[in-house]
Give the backbone structure.
Amino acid sequence: MNFHKVFNGAKIVAATAAVSLVLAACGDKGTSSENVEHGDSAKSSSSISKDDKSSDSKDEKSSDSKGDSSDSKDDSSSSAAVDVPKGARAATLDDLAKNMSLGEMFGTTVYLATGAQHGLFSLWVPDTAWVVASSDFEDGVLEINKKTGAIMGLSGPSVVDSMKNLLSEGVTLNFIVNEKEALQFSMDGGKTYNDVANASVKTTSAKMSQGDDLKGVRLTCKSGSTTNTYSFYEGRYYLETSTDDKVEAWSAGYYDIQRSYLLMLPKFFEGKTNALTSFFVNPDTYTLSFYGGVENSCDKSTFKYEDVAAKDLVNEWEAVDNGVEWVLEYSSNGAYTVYARKGGDTQQSKEGYWDIYGDVMFMHATGCKDPSNCTQDVMGVISELDPKTGFEFDHNDPDEPTMPKVWTLPQYE
């Protein structure tokens, strides 16, 4: 299966297909301690549907892109800068270690992991519960809530309920470097800052521990008639689920390996998908495994892709097809709009957020001219990009009128 072939334009409907152990997912207050295997027809509380995402507001736009393929974000942006104590400064990613201790919370020690620092953060009560969230860490601010993250863990311990409540209610962690060059944090804009200590996490040769080791790797994992194909970019992933060679669902989002767990947090998807997935990856066999004996053997291959710079797409583009005039605008804050007009009448319009992983564009619509007949999530390969002329977008949007695949810069007299 070649990911960079023309995508199937049909609307996709699918059941949960990734292996995970989920306690709460994007607002789901239920819990589950069951593993869901590839191809298992049972539904887990991990699954989320398009209906869950359709209520997202346009406020979930990102900050300015910095110019590489992973800079456009959706709902992962941090809030505005907060006041810092005199002599201190807001922390940057360079100030953060891969693993840190935030001290005691909920009657136990809570740890923060940053991994390869491609926009994914996680809070841990080791081997008990972990909250994963995406963030740009702008101005040293890390926001964790149901829009930016999800939670996994074991059933039973009371600390799991505390971590679930933290995600449900939301928390803002403000990190600073004080006048003594010590890293500290406060919660929800509080004036009291606590020290952040570096932490050590034991690794083992049986589990992959570096997320960047998966860059350019594709894992094809079969279970019965179901095949899950994972494609890993730099800090981003694409998962395609097919049955009998027919694509039934896909998702894409952030990934990293933190504390030896492969974490995948979706931001775009078609069909139901897990709000958060965790695996252990064997670096020799590329077997995916998890607690409870869940294990899936995978075939490993590598692939090459072009890193399309997000900044080169930030502009207004146009196309004309069958007398329909189209305008597509990608903004530097991660928002997009597209509309089609013919004879002064609007034929179609959408707005939402976008991101590009390598050379693959993802677009999620938060608003449509006809909400009852609107494909919210669209994906496709960007090629032949010249910021001064145009590009090709081989997409899978089936809506009518059909969105063009060749776009050019507007011409002015």
Q: What stands out?
A: Confidence is low (pLDDT under 50) at residues 1-80.
